[in-house]
Predict the structure of TetR/AcrR family transcriptional regulator.
Amino acid sequence: MVSRSGSADGPTRQSLMDVAITLFARHSVAGTSLQMISDALGLTKSAIYHHFRTRDELLSAIIEPIVDQLADVVRDAEARRTAPARAERMLTGYADLAVAHRDLFPVFSGDPGVVDFLRTRPAWAEVVRRQAELFAAVDPGPGGQVRAAVVMAGMAAAVGVPFDGLSDEAVREELLAAGRRTLGLRTPRVRTA
Amino acid sequence: MVSRSGSADGPTRQSLMDVAITLFARHSVAGTSLQMISDALGLTKSAIYHHFRTRDELLSAIIEPIVDQLADVVRDAEARRTAPARAERMLTGYADLAVAHRDLFPVFSGDPGVVDFLRTRPAWAEVVRRQAELFAAVDPGPGGQVRAAVVMAGMAAAVGVPFDGLSDEAVREELLAAGRRTLGLRTPRVRTA
Protein backbone atom coordinates (compact mmCIF):
# COMPACT_ATOMS: atom_id res chain seq x y z
CA MET A 1 0.00 0.00 0.00
CA VAL A 2 1.38 3.35 -1.06
CA SER A 3 1.05 5.99 1.62
CA ARG A 4 -0.41 9.22 0.23
CA SER A 5 -2.24 12.05 1.84
CA GLY A 6 -5.94 12.43 1.24
CA SER A 7 -8.62 14.57 2.79
CA ALA A 8 -10.83 13.07 5.47
CA ASP A 9 -13.68 12.55 3.05
CA GLY A 10 -11.72 10.67 0.45
CA PRO A 11 -8.57 10.70 -1.64
CA THR A 12 -7.72 13.88 -3.43
CA ARG A 13 -7.74 13.86 -7.19
CA GLN A 14 -4.00 14.65 -7.10
CA SER A 15 -3.12 11.72 -4.85
CA LEU A 16 -4.88 9.37 -7.27
CA MET A 17 -2.89 10.84 -10.13
CA ASP A 18 0.39 10.57 -8.19
CA VAL A 19 -0.18 6.91 -7.40
CA ALA A 20 -1.25 6.24 -10.98
CA ILE A 21 2.01 7.69 -12.31
CA THR A 22 4.03 5.48 -9.93
CA LEU A 23 2.12 2.40 -11.07
CA PHE A 24 2.27 3.34 -14.77
CA ALA A 25 6.04 3.61 -14.46
CA ARG A 26 6.24 0.23 -12.73
CA HIS A 27 3.67 -1.77 -14.69
CA SER A 28 3.03 0.30 -17.86
CA VAL A 29 -0.31 1.93 -18.57
CA ALA A 30 -1.87 -1.24 -19.98
CA GLY A 31 -0.67 -3.19 -16.95
CA THR A 32 -2.27 -0.81 -14.45
CA SER A 33 -5.97 -1.09 -13.64
CA LEU A 34 -8.12 1.33 -11.66
CA GLN A 35 -8.40 -1.56 -9.21
CA MET A 36 -4.62 -1.57 -8.70
CA ILE A 37 -4.67 2.18 -8.10
CA SER A 38 -7.44 1.91 -5.51
CA ASP A 39 -5.67 -1.04 -3.85
CA ALA A 40 -2.44 0.97 -3.60
CA LEU A 41 -4.35 3.69 -1.74
CA GLY A 42 -6.35 1.19 0.34
CA LEU A 43 -9.60 2.36 -1.23
CA THR A 44 -12.61 0.83 -2.83
CA LYS A 45 -13.02 1.25 -6.56
CA SER A 46 -16.06 3.44 -6.01
CA ALA A 47 -13.87 6.00 -4.24
CA ILE A 48 -11.88 6.36 -7.47
CA TYR A 49 -15.03 6.53 -9.60
CA HIS A 50 -15.96 9.72 -7.82
CA HIS A 51 -12.98 11.32 -9.63
CA PHE A 52 -12.30 9.18 -12.71
CA ARG A 53 -14.68 6.87 -14.55
CA THR A 54 -12.01 5.17 -16.66
CA ARG A 55 -8.26 4.77 -16.82
CA ASP A 56 -8.22 6.92 -19.96
CA GLU A 57 -9.93 9.72 -18.05
CA LEU A 58 -7.22 9.50 -15.40
CA LEU A 59 -4.46 9.34 -18.01
CA SER A 60 -5.98 12.35 -19.71
CA ALA A 61 -5.98 14.33 -16.46
CA ILE A 62 -2.29 13.50 -15.99
CA ILE A 63 -1.19 14.32 -19.52
CA GLU A 64 -3.33 17.38 -20.27
CA PRO A 65 -1.49 19.99 -18.16
CA ILE A 66 1.86 18.81 -19.52
CA VAL A 67 0.71 18.90 -23.14
CA ASP A 68 -0.66 22.39 -22.48
CA GLN A 69 2.75 23.52 -21.20
CA LEU A 70 4.47 21.79 -24.12
CA ALA A 71 2.11 23.58 -26.53
CA ASP A 72 3.06 26.93 -24.95
CA VAL A 73 6.74 26.15 -25.51
CA VAL A 74 6.07 25.06 -29.11
CA ARG A 75 4.22 28.31 -29.88
CA ASP A 76 6.93 30.39 -28.24
CA ALA A 77 9.63 28.50 -30.15
CA GLU A 78 7.83 28.80 -33.48
CA ALA A 79 7.80 32.58 -33.06
CA ARG A 80 11.63 32.81 -33.06
CA ARG A 81 13.38 34.01 -36.20
CA THR A 82 15.81 31.25 -37.13
CA ALA A 83 15.66 27.46 -37.16
CA PRO A 84 18.48 27.13 -34.57
CA ALA A 85 16.82 29.71 -32.29
CA ARG A 86 13.52 27.87 -32.61
CA ALA A 87 15.16 24.52 -31.79
CA GLU A 88 17.10 26.01 -28.87
CA ARG A 89 13.92 27.44 -27.33
CA MET A 90 12.12 24.12 -27.85
CA LEU A 91 15.04 22.23 -26.31
CA THR A 92 15.21 24.32 -23.13
CA GLY A 93 11.44 24.16 -22.68
CA TYR A 94 11.44 20.39 -23.20
CA ALA A 95 14.32 19.91 -20.74
CA ASP A 96 12.49 22.04 -18.16
CA LEU A 97 9.36 19.92 -18.49
CA ALA A 98 11.21 16.61 -18.51
CA VAL A 99 13.16 17.46 -15.35
CA ALA A 100 9.99 18.73 -13.65
CA HIS A 101 8.32 15.37 -14.37
CA ARG A 102 11.09 12.81 -14.00
CA ASP A 103 8.59 10.14 -12.95
CA LEU A 104 6.31 10.65 -15.92
CA PHE A 105 8.49 11.43 -18.94
CA PRO A 106 10.02 7.93 -19.12
CA VAL A 107 6.44 6.58 -19.33
CA PHE A 108 5.71 9.01 -22.16
CA SER A 109 8.78 8.01 -24.08
CA GLY A 110 8.14 4.32 -24.35
CA ASP A 111 4.70 3.24 -23.23
CA PRO A 112 2.46 1.97 -26.04
CA GLY A 113 -0.53 2.89 -23.87
CA VAL A 114 0.46 6.55 -24.08
CA VAL A 115 1.15 6.34 -27.82
CA ASP A 116 -2.29 4.76 -28.35
CA PHE A 117 -3.90 7.38 -26.20
CA LEU A 118 -2.30 10.22 -28.15
CA ARG A 119 -3.81 8.75 -31.32
CA THR A 120 -7.25 9.40 -29.84
CA ARG A 121 -6.30 13.04 -29.22
CA PRO A 122 -5.20 14.45 -32.58
CA ALA A 123 -4.64 17.93 -31.11
CA TRP A 124 -2.12 16.52 -28.63
CA ALA A 125 -0.37 14.37 -31.22
CA GLU A 126 -0.09 17.54 -33.32
CA VAL A 127 1.82 19.29 -30.51
CA VAL A 128 4.32 16.42 -30.45
CA ARG A 129 4.59 16.55 -34.26
CA ARG A 130 5.32 20.29 -34.18
CA GLN A 131 7.96 19.74 -31.51
CA ALA A 132 9.68 17.11 -33.67
CA GLU A 133 9.51 19.47 -36.64
CA LEU A 134 11.21 22.26 -34.68
CA PHE A 135 14.10 19.92 -33.85
CA ALA A 136 14.28 18.35 -37.32
CA ALA A 137 14.32 21.73 -39.09
CA VAL A 138 17.84 22.48 -37.81
CA ASP A 139 19.04 20.13 -40.54
CA PRO A 140 16.36 19.57 -43.19
CA GLY A 141 16.46 16.02 -44.48
CA PRO A 142 16.52 12.54 -43.01
CA GLY A 143 19.40 13.23 -40.62
CA GLY A 144 17.44 15.96 -38.88
CA GLN A 145 14.41 13.74 -38.48
CA VAL A 146 16.41 10.90 -36.96
CA ARG A 147 18.22 13.26 -34.59
CA ALA A 148 14.91 14.79 -33.51
CA ALA A 149 13.60 11.33 -32.62
CA VAL A 150 16.78 10.45 -30.72
CA VAL A 151 16.68 13.70 -28.72
CA MET A 152 12.99 13.54 -27.85
CA ALA A 153 12.93 9.90 -26.75
CA GLY A 154 16.45 9.97 -25.33
CA MET A 155 15.85 12.98 -23.08
CA ALA A 156 12.46 11.67 -21.93
CA ALA A 157 13.97 8.31 -20.97
CA ALA A 158 17.17 9.74 -19.47
CA VAL A 159 15.36 11.77 -16.80
CA GLY A 160 14.16 8.44 -15.40
CA VAL A 161 17.75 7.42 -14.58
CA PRO A 162 18.73 8.42 -11.04
CA PHE A 163 22.34 9.51 -11.88
CA ASP A 164 23.64 9.22 -8.33
CA GLY A 165 24.43 12.55 -6.79
CA LEU A 166 23.28 14.70 -9.71
CA SER A 167 20.78 17.44 -8.86
CA ASP A 168 17.79 18.08 -11.11
CA GLU A 169 19.49 21.29 -12.24
CA ALA A 170 22.67 19.41 -13.16
CA VAL A 171 20.65 16.79 -15.05
CA ARG A 172 18.88 19.60 -16.90
CA GLU A 173 22.18 21.22 -17.90
CA GLU A 174 23.63 17.92 -19.08
CA LEU A 175 20.46 17.12 -21.04
CA LEU A 176 20.66 20.50 -22.74
CA ALA A 177 24.31 19.91 -23.58
CA ALA A 178 23.50 16.45 -24.96
CA GLY A 179 20.53 17.75 -26.96
CA ARG A 180 22.54 20.62 -28.46
CA ARG A 181 25.31 18.27 -29.52
CA THR A 182 22.89 15.81 -31.06
CA LEU A 183 21.00 18.49 -32.97
CA GLY A 184 24.10 20.50 -33.86
CA LEU A 185 23.19 23.66 -31.93
CA ARG A 186 25.77 26.02 -30.44
CA THR A 187 25.70 26.69 -26.73
CA PRO A 188 24.09 30.11 -26.44
CA ARG A 189 26.33 32.84 -24.99
CA VAL A 190 23.60 34.24 -22.80
CA ARG A 191 21.75 31.50 -20.96
CA THR A 192 18.00 31.72 -20.97
CA ALA A 193 17.11 30.47 -17.52
CA MET B 1 -6.18 -12.53 -36.08
CA VAL B 2 -2.62 -12.07 -37.21
CA SER B 3 -1.69 -14.23 -40.16
CA ARG B 4 1.56 -16.08 -39.56
CA SER B 5 2.93 -19.28 -40.94
CA GLY B 6 2.97 -22.34 -38.79
CA SER B 7 3.60 -25.98 -39.47
CA ALA B 8 0.66 -28.30 -39.95
CA ASP B 9 1.01 -29.72 -36.46
CA GLY B 10 0.93 -26.38 -34.68
CA PRO B 11 2.46 -22.96 -34.51
CA THR B 12 6.19 -22.72 -34.72
CA ARG B 13 8.04 -21.34 -31.76
CA GLN B 14 9.19 -18.47 -33.96
CA SER B 15 5.69 -17.50 -35.08
CA LEU B 16 4.61 -17.29 -31.43
CA MET B 17 7.59 -15.03 -30.71
CA ASP B 18 6.85 -12.85 -33.76
CA VAL B 19 3.24 -12.33 -32.75
CA ALA B 20 4.28 -11.67 -29.16
CA ILE B 21 6.65 -8.89 -30.27
CA THR B 22 3.86 -7.26 -32.32
CA LEU B 23 1.51 -7.38 -29.34
CA PHE B 24 4.17 -6.21 -26.84
CA ALA B 25 4.80 -3.18 -29.06
CA ARG B 26 1.07 -2.45 -29.26
CA HIS B 27 -0.04 -3.21 -25.69
CA SER B 28 3.21 -3.32 -23.67
CA VAL B 29 4.49 -6.50 -22.06
CA ALA B 30 2.26 -6.18 -19.00
CA GLY B 31 -0.75 -5.58 -21.24
CA THR B 32 -0.17 -8.74 -23.31
CA SER B 33 -1.33 -12.11 -22.01
CA LEU B 34 -0.56 -15.55 -23.39
CA GLN B 35 -4.30 -15.67 -24.10
CA MET B 36 -4.02 -12.62 -26.38
CA ILE B 37 -1.11 -14.23 -28.21
CA SER B 38 -3.01 -17.46 -28.77
CA ASP B 39 -6.10 -15.51 -29.84
CA ALA B 40 -4.05 -13.56 -32.39
CA LEU B 41 -2.92 -16.85 -33.92
CA GLY B 42 -6.36 -18.43 -33.64
CA LEU B 43 -5.06 -21.06 -31.23
CA THR B 44 -6.00 -22.52 -27.92
CA LYS B 45 -3.85 -21.61 -24.95
CA SER B 46 -2.66 -25.21 -24.68
CA ALA B 47 -1.03 -24.89 -28.11
CA ILE B 48 1.16 -22.12 -26.71
CA TYR B 49 1.90 -24.10 -23.54
CA HIS B 50 3.63 -26.67 -25.65
CA HIS B 51 6.31 -24.03 -26.29
CA PHE B 52 6.09 -21.53 -23.42
CA ARG B 53 4.66 -22.06 -19.95
CA THR B 54 4.65 -18.37 -18.98
CA ARG B 55 4.93 -14.96 -20.58
CA ASP B 56 8.33 -14.54 -18.92
CA GLU B 57 9.54 -17.71 -20.60
CA LEU B 58 8.42 -16.30 -23.95
CA LEU B 59 9.97 -12.90 -23.20
CA SER B 60 13.17 -14.64 -22.24
CA ALA B 61 13.27 -16.56 -25.53
CA ILE B 62 12.84 -13.29 -27.42
CA ILE B 63 15.44 -11.32 -25.49
CA GLU B 64 18.14 -13.96 -24.97
CA PRO B 65 19.59 -14.10 -28.50
CA ILE B 66 19.73 -10.30 -28.67
CA VAL B 67 21.43 -9.97 -25.28
CA ASP B 68 23.90 -12.64 -26.42
CA GLN B 69 24.72 -10.60 -29.52
CA LEU B 70 24.93 -7.42 -27.45
CA ALA B 71 27.33 -9.18 -25.06
CA ASP B 72 29.53 -10.15 -28.01
CA VAL B 73 29.67 -6.51 -29.09
CA VAL B 74 30.42 -5.35 -25.53
CA ARG B 75 33.31 -7.82 -25.22
CA ASP B 76 34.68 -6.85 -28.61
CA ALA B 77 34.38 -3.15 -27.76
CA GLU B 78 36.03 -3.55 -24.35
CA ALA B 79 39.06 -5.09 -26.07
CA ARG B 80 39.80 -1.90 -28.04
CA ARG B 81 42.64 0.34 -26.90
CA THR B 82 41.08 3.76 -26.34
CA ALA B 83 37.82 5.00 -24.85
CA PRO B 84 36.67 6.57 -28.15
CA ALA B 85 37.50 3.39 -30.07
CA ARG B 86 35.60 1.32 -27.52
CA ALA B 87 32.57 3.63 -27.73
CA GLU B 88 32.68 3.67 -31.54
CA ARG B 89 32.69 -0.14 -31.70
CA MET B 90 29.85 -0.30 -29.17
CA LEU B 91 27.89 2.30 -31.12
CA THR B 92 28.12 0.53 -34.48
CA GLY B 93 27.22 -2.80 -32.89
CA TYR B 94 24.25 -1.27 -31.10
CA ALA B 95 23.04 0.44 -34.28
CA ASP B 96 23.33 -2.85 -36.19
CA LEU B 97 21.23 -4.65 -33.60
CA ALA B 98 18.65 -1.87 -33.26
CA VAL B 99 18.10 -1.68 -37.03
CA ALA B 100 17.90 -5.49 -37.27
CA HIS B 101 15.13 -5.45 -34.64
CA ARG B 102 13.16 -2.30 -35.34
CA ASP B 103 9.98 -3.87 -33.93
CA LEU B 104 11.58 -4.91 -30.66
CA PHE B 105 14.04 -2.18 -29.66
CA PRO B 106 11.36 0.43 -28.97
CA VAL B 107 9.80 -2.08 -26.55
CA PHE B 108 13.18 -2.52 -24.85
CA SER B 109 13.70 1.19 -24.51
CA GLY B 110 10.59 2.05 -22.59
CA ASP B 111 8.64 -0.93 -21.37
CA PRO B 112 8.61 -1.35 -17.58
CA GLY B 113 7.91 -5.05 -18.15
CA VAL B 114 11.29 -5.43 -19.83
CA VAL B 115 13.06 -3.36 -17.16
CA ASP B 116 11.48 -5.54 -14.46
CA PHE B 117 12.43 -8.66 -16.32
CA LEU B 118 16.06 -7.57 -16.64
CA ARG B 119 16.15 -7.16 -12.85
CA THR B 120 15.49 -10.89 -12.57
CA ARG B 121 18.45 -11.61 -14.87
CA PRO B 122 21.47 -9.92 -13.29
CA ALA B 123 23.79 -11.24 -16.01
CA TRP B 124 21.70 -9.50 -18.68
CA ALA B 125 21.40 -6.26 -16.72
CA GLU B 126 25.19 -6.38 -16.40
CA VAL B 127 25.57 -6.41 -20.19
CA VAL B 128 23.44 -3.27 -20.42
CA ARG B 129 25.47 -1.65 -17.62
CA ARG B 130 28.74 -2.40 -19.41
CA GLN B 131 27.34 -0.95 -22.61
CA ALA B 132 26.38 2.28 -20.80
CA GLU B 133 29.85 2.40 -19.24
CA LEU B 134 31.50 2.12 -22.67
CA PHE B 135 29.51 5.13 -23.88
CA ALA B 136 29.91 7.14 -20.67
CA ALA B 137 33.68 6.62 -20.54
CA VAL B 138 34.20 8.90 -23.56
CA ASP B 139 33.72 11.78 -21.15
CA PRO B 140 34.16 10.67 -17.52
CA GLY B 141 31.76 12.48 -15.23
CA PRO B 142 28.07 13.25 -15.14
CA GLY B 143 27.90 14.59 -18.70
CA GLY B 144 29.09 11.28 -20.11
CA GLN B 145 26.55 9.32 -18.10
CA VAL B 146 23.66 11.50 -19.22
CA ARG B 147 24.75 11.33 -22.87
CA ALA B 148 25.07 7.53 -22.64
CA ALA B 149 21.47 7.32 -21.41
CA VAL B 150 20.23 9.65 -24.16
CA VAL B 151 22.01 7.67 -26.87
CA MET B 152 20.91 4.23 -25.67
CA ALA B 153 17.24 5.07 -25.16
CA GLY B 154 17.09 7.52 -28.03
CA MET B 155 18.48 5.10 -30.62
CA ALA B 156 16.29 2.24 -29.37
CA ALA B 157 13.16 4.38 -29.62
CA ALA B 158 14.10 6.05 -32.91
CA VAL B 159 14.26 2.78 -34.86
CA GLY B 160 10.54 2.42 -34.12
CA VAL B 161 9.77 5.55 -36.16
CA PRO B 162 9.02 4.70 -39.81
CA PHE B 163 10.87 7.73 -41.34
CA ASP B 164 9.05 7.63 -44.68
CA GLY B 165 11.26 6.54 -47.50
CA LEU B 166 14.38 5.88 -45.44
CA SER B 167 15.95 2.45 -45.88
CA ASP B 168 17.20 0.49 -42.89
CA GLU B 169 20.74 1.23 -44.03
CA ALA B 170 20.04 4.97 -44.18
CA VAL B 171 18.45 4.87 -40.73
CA ARG B 172 21.51 3.04 -39.44
CA GLU B 173 23.88 5.65 -40.89
CA GLU B 174 21.83 8.52 -39.45
CA LEU B 175 21.66 6.82 -36.04
CA LEU B 176 25.44 6.41 -36.07
CA ALA B 177 25.87 10.07 -37.00
CA ALA B 178 23.48 11.13 -34.22
CA GLY B 179 25.15 8.85 -31.67
CA ARG B 180 28.64 10.11 -32.56
CA ARG B 181 27.55 13.72 -32.23
CA THR B 182 25.87 13.09 -28.91
CA LEU B 183 28.84 11.23 -27.46
CA GLY B 184 31.44 13.49 -29.04
CA LEU B 185 33.07 10.85 -31.27
CA ARG B 186 34.71 11.68 -34.58
CA THR B 187 33.43 10.01 -37.72
CA PRO B 188 35.99 7.27 -38.39
CA ARG B 189 37.93 7.66 -41.65
CA VAL B 190 37.68 3.98 -42.49
CA ARG B 191 34.18 2.66 -41.99
CA THR B 192 33.91 -0.62 -40.17
CA ALA B 193 30.98 -2.28 -41.90
User: Anything to note?
Assistant: Residues 56-183 of chain B form a domain with the Tetracycline Repressor; domain 2 fold (CATH 1.10.357).
